[in-house]
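Give me the fold.
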Amino acid sequence: MAVHFVTRRACVALAALTLVACGPPDSTDVAEAAVDGFPLAIPGPGGGEVLLERPAWRILPGNAGALDLLSSLIEPERVVAITVGTRPYSVALRGDFDGSGVREVESFDLETIVSLEPDVVVSHAWQSIDKGPFLRRVGIPVFEIPDAVDFEGLCDVIALLGAAVGEDQRASATIADLRARLATLAEVDRSRFDAMTYSSSGAGGWTAAEGTTAEAFMTWAGLTPAATAAGLRGHHQVDHERLLDIDPRVLIIASDDGDPDASTTLLALRADERLSSLRALGDDGLVIVLPDELFSCTSHYLVEAAERVAAAVDARWRP
């Protein structure tokens, strides 16, 4: 068995973009300088739409995925706050996006959101932030973004988010960079390698199949998603016996900082004698260990995950 691990330092190597940082203008300057395209309709809670009257300057990301998407578009001082649970799962905060001066709060209850006075809240549909009529009444719009499970959908989100924060050029540059990197990944045929993500702390575990972000980064890496090929969809509970039935050649797991010795999943797999015949654990298999935040990300950093997975496969089998 070969084990390939990726450190956080390696995971933050997004292609460099030449971006000019500028100090925050006052809200009047923003409103007067960037009125084209506004009011702008953005996806709101429950599948509806809400209107932004002007580009948002003070932005409240509801989770790590939202913050990571914003990191390629805005400077840290435009982030009004994050929750304490955001930092451990943000890829951007492990890299060049300096969030040291960003305020941290325990949770985003209504009182906290209103006191922060954001121009927009950026969240996901699955998030438990109360995004009901109260925020609308106090004039705080909510941009509800979908998970990035297909590349064109991801690009659409980046473009619309860029428009919402008045950073169309940065959004275009980010999308162009991602397209180029995806094209580079596609230059090598890796489809003969079937791969599967897995998380376990004992006899059972979970995998991600069709319609998930994990399937997206495996597909972008050019691998064949084994759980999807086995007929699974979404996040699915898979015990060790079912894992043996699927028997992927490449297994992708997570641990803190991508350290295989810190992976509870790898320890659980090695402890189960029944899994001694699992291809991924054998001489002709591969276990790839990603940092927790990259393994579970829901942003454009999925392309980084795909690159790291592809690089591990290429290092293992290409001459």
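The longest strand covers residues 250-255.
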